[in-house]
Amino acid sequence: MQAVNRRFAQRFGPWALVTGASEGIGREMARGLARRGLNVILVARREEVLVSLAAELAVRTDVVAADLSTPEGVTKVLAAAEDKEVGLAAFAAGFGTSGDFTGIAAEEELQMVDLNCRSVVALLHGLVPAMA
Questions:
Q1: Quick one: pLDDT at residue 15?
Q2: Cβ contact 97:53 at 8 Å
Q3: Do 77 and 17 meet the contact criterion of CB atoms below 8 Å apart?
Q4: Could you tell me which residues are beta bridge partners of residue 42?
Q5: Local confidence band at 1 (pLDDT 50, 70, 90 cut-offs)
Q6: How far apart are CA 91 and CA 64, in angstroms?
Q7: What value does the mean pLDDT take over residues 83-109?
Q8: What does the pLDDT look like over 38-68, one tens digit per residue?
Q9: 60 burial via Cβ count (<10 Å: 0-12, 13-18, 19+)
Q10: Angle at the Cα of 52 (from 49 to 55), degrees rounded to 5?
Q11: How far apart are CA 30 and CA 38, in angstroms?
Q12: In the structure, what pLDDT confidence band is assigned to residue 10 with cuts at 50, 70 and 90?
């Protein structure tokens, strides 16, 4: 298993970036990537939860508390990744709405688009040149 993890880290490493790392799929992706030997940049809004996760991982971590539905949040994440050799990104941050569209505030829908779509494009645009 060590050889498999070493090959994985050589292919993608040494750093991975995981958004939505405070819970659910993002948290489990961060754990899995750390088990495979990658250092992890943990991104979510709740810093205390990220710090707790970082303490349990047996790799180097960076914690970035940022709201990715804002341009400032995206800029903060890109700045944190700038001096890292990020070879893999997992975008698990997101939310959805449901119900009668006329009953949902336009601002909430636009925030969802900013988080689920705009931030992913902006982060990829910032990360891919170094990945390539």
A1: 97
A2: no
A3: yes
A4: 18, 63
A5: low
A6: 14
A7: 94
A8: 999 999 999 999 999 999 999 999 999 999 9
A9: middle
A10: 150
A11: 9
A12: confident
Separation between Cα atoms, residue 62 and residue 80, nearest integer Å: 8
Q: What residues contact 61, with CB distance under 8 A and at least 6 apart?
A: 34, 39, 40, 41, 42, 53, 54
Angle at 84 between CA 72 and CA 42, to 5 degrees: 60
pTM of the prediction?
0.93
The pLDDT assigned to 3 comes to 76
DSSP sequence for the chain? -HHHHHHHHHHH-SEEEEETTTSHHHHHHHHHHHHTT-EEEEEES-HHHHHHHHHH-SS-EEEEE--TTSHHHHHHHHHHHTTS-EEEEEE-------S-GGGS-HHHHHHHHIIIIIHHHHHHHHHHHHH-
- Residues making up the chain, counted from first to last: 132
